[in-house]
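JOB MANIFEST
job_type = single_chain_structure
chain_count = 1
residues = 348
[input]
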Amino acid sequence: MSTETAGAAPAGAVKALVMADVAARAGVSHQTVSRVVNDHPNVAAPTRERVQRAIAELGYRPNTAARALVTGSSRTIGLITINVNQYGPAQTLIGLEEAARAAGYSLSVAILDEPGLDELQGALDRFLAQSVDAVVLHTSSSQAVEALRSLDPPVPLVAVQMGAEEVRPTVTVGQEAGARLAVAHLLGLGHATVHHVAGPAYSLEAQRRVVGWRAALTDAGAEVPEVVHGDWWPTSGYATGLALAARIAAGEVITAVFAGNDQMALGLMVALCASGLEVPGDVSVVGFDDVPEAAFYTPPLTTVRQDFAELGRRGVALVLAQLAGEDTLPDQVEPQLVVRSSTAPPRS
């Protein structure tokens, strides 16, 4: 017959560490350990270091659920995002996670297939059940902006890369400014105009790049060609490249193309070369994003760089400002032009 009593720990079981164990090791009170764990400012530096050393030596891990009950904070930020299989969204997610971790928060992620109101509300409800401190919505879908107007959570909700300034606090990369940089570079090389292969029409990022491209051409008094839409992938860039090559073969003058992202630019350049045209000899090409592979395309791609790590840092900073009750303004990360070998003056 077993001599083990109901509720007693099984023989050989390791007792879970508690704050009292840390307090005993550090020679401080339970309350002092609690203050250190919860980042309370009123702890002397030597005492804080002693407690942190004891935590490290014992391998103590705070009970986040219990801490949330005491402090009213789970130290968790919920992230709702849609479709992270592209370089930009994936890098933004990484930037947000790194910035949240540096600020002492964890990131809980919900990846949705559709940005509709029902899907967003469902993800938001799941996060609220987890007692998150705030929620970040990251998507470039115009549909999500409309849905965002109907959401009214009891925690701060921040938009990243949406530009929904009139709806929520937001931080984004200057898409229009980036497009202007691309066009100004090509016009500055002497090209009469710049054709544009844009991203999908539903994308806010694609829409703003079209606005910037068109405005830069208009301001320069240059012809504004008809925009062509792709789907962000190299296959659509390749199809567009074949179509442009056929137009050039028919006698149309096309010497410069601004692609909505680097992947479409890659497909575009492959198609042009397959059609017997040289990049940049016959057609100069500029991309957008500056993916790590862009410097190793043939030729290396001139592109507009988005700083996704900085976007993540500013997104988390906006969340922290909201949690602190501070007034916030829309924030924008400025893009940079990276000039490589895929652009050159047009042949006379």
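[summary]
DSSP finds twelve helices and twelve strands in the chain.
The first strand starts at residue 76 and ends at 82.
exit_status = 0
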